[in-house]
Amino acid sequence: MDRRLGRKLVVLDADSTLIDNEVIELLADEAGSGALVAEITDRAMRGELDFAASLRERVATLGGLTPEAIARVRAKVSVTEGVPELIAAVQAEDGWVCVVSGGFHEVLDPVAQALGVNAWRANRLETAPDGSLSGQVSGHIVDATAKAKALLDWASEGDFLREDTVAIGDGANDLDMMSVAGLSVAFCAKPIVRDRAHVAIDVRDMRHAIDMIRNSART
Fold it and tell me: Over the Cα atoms of the chain, what is R_g?
């Protein structure tokens, strides 16, 4: 039996997909705005709020957080079970694993570097002169449209056919990139995402994605 994946581009969302956490909620806990931010995040992930506006609203509650607080958040982040195995399986066949996140480079960068993913994009938090957070996002916001563009950009850069691309996510902000991918995987996802994805994983173990990608390569 052929157990090869084939050469694939796999693009993962970060929060609650690549990692077990929602980083903005961890940051909000440090800022004392956890309950408010959790409610806004949930509505945005269900598609009830515009992502960019909701992100700005949530980030506004983080003003004044220090570099030490951000370091404490980094220490709380845990990688989803099975992610290292998925990365190894894809890269073993000259594929790429990339991450695109509505979260933040300040927390994602060390995780992505440690995992050895091929590329990643996220939002940046603006800092005040004293190094604390200003409460604003710096630069363009990584929203649903930007996530889809990232997948297509990486496919072009790595010379991947559209049918050899895979998008894995859990929230409404992932729907655009999932719609342009050859295979879309809902990972412990909100109902709106599960309903629109090609396949779904309902346990928090990314190793299940390996078999789904392998099966799609044989069809």
Answer: 17
Q: Residue 56, CB half-sphere, CA atoms under 13 Å: how many? A: 8
Known catalytic membership, residue 130: no
How is residue 87 written in tokens? 């990365």
Taking a C-beta distance cutoff of 8 angstroms, is the pair 213, 3 a contact? no
Q: What is the pLDDT of residues 59-105, one digit of tens each?
A: 999 999 999 999 999 999 999 999 999 999 999 999 999 999 999 99
What does DSSP assign to residue 19?
B
Out of 15, 143, 174, 176, the active site residue is 15
- Domains annotated for the chain, with CATH where assigned, are 9-20+79-218 (3.40.50.1000)
pTM: 0.94
3-state secondary structure of 163: helix
Which of 2, 13, 143, 159 is labelled catalytic?
A: 13
Is 13 among the catalytic positions? yes
